[in-house]
Amino acid sequence: MKVAIQGEMGSNSHMATVAMLGNLKGLQIIACTVSAEVMGKVVAGDVDGAVLPIENSLHGSVAEHYDLLLEQPVRIAGESLLRIRHNVIVSPGVKLNEIRRVMSHPVALSQCRRFLAAHPEFEVVPFYDTAGSVKHVMAEGLKDVAGLAPELAASWYGAEVLIPGVEDHAENFTRFHLVLRDGVDSQAFGTVGEPNKMSVAFAIEHRPGTLVAALERLARAGVDLTKIESRPVPGSPWEYVFYVDARFDGPKTAEAALASLREHCRMVKVLGQYRAA
């Protein structure tokens, strides 16, 4: 079973994949540089699925992934939550007073502002990936550089956690989606339980009150709206596609909500129905 992720091995996406699918025999994780490459491999059948982050409780949504879910013939088949911890990781034996530079993904750096502010002697350098910073430190044999990354990155690349948990907020979670190509059976991935959550994209006419009317239809159908996000429509300035997540108590409720939306909206795409994390 091949599953693609965006980022290096040892990243949070790697950890989320193991947490979600680690019981699958022969699981092979394929690290990709960018999210479009991940989705391309899913659509082409080069991998069986992908695990992608969709939202962080502090940083917000991953907008690019909403766009890819809408554009590509894929669906969300599962959901998980991962507690995010950022650790100062160094080459074995390096001490805190030897560090001159700290590297990590810009989001990770922004979530460790208090720690970095307490160490003005550090040069802070944005890097393409959290785990990638540790991979770079070890590949280059750097003794004065630290990476901010998950604990898994330390064990994966033979590095050492110098200071654990330097994030500003303990309540830091990322929501991940298991993404499959249309037609692929989700049972092969061990997904269990009846779906009770759906993600839907819809577009409405650009007239006063149309969004309110769409949301009222969802409410009357009895679904619980848990998230709404808007994304611009390329080539149509000031027009938007709306993405919603909604909980429901049974398939009939979900079907009624979708039927009501389709009567009102010029476009509706079900991005997936799955068991909520």
Describe the protein.
By secondary structure, the chain is α/β, with parallel strands linked by helices. The protein folds into three domains: 2-83 and 173-182, Periplasmic binding protein-like II (D-Maltodextrin-Binding Protein, domain 2); 87-163, Periplasmic binding protein-like II (D-Maltodextrin-Binding Protein, domain 2); 197-274, Alpha-Beta Plaits (2-Layer Sandwich). The chain has nine helices and 15 strands. The strands form three sheets. Strands 1, 2, 3, 4, 5 and 11 form a six-stranded mixed beta sheet that branches. It has a five-stranded mixed beta sheet with strand order 8-7-9-6-10. The protein has a four-stranded antiparallel beta sheet with strand order 13-14-12-15, with helices on both faces. A hairpin with a 3-residue loop joins strand 3 and strand 4. Helix 6 runs parallel beside helix 7 (151-157). The longest helix is centred in the C-terminal third of the chain and has 14 residues, at 251-264. The relative contact order is 0.17.
Proportion of β residues? 35-45%
CATH architecture of the largest domain: 3-Layer(aba) Sandwich
Mean pLDDT: 94
Oligomer: single chain
CATH topology of the largest domain: D-Maltodextrin-Binding Protein, domain 2
Distance between the termini: 22 Å
**CATH class identity of the largest domain:** Alpha Beta
Secondary-structure element string? EHEHEEHEEEHHEHEHEEEHEEHE
Principal-axes shape call: elongated
CATH superfamily caption of the largest domain: Periplasmic binding protein-like II
Task: Point out poorly predicted stretches.
Answer: none
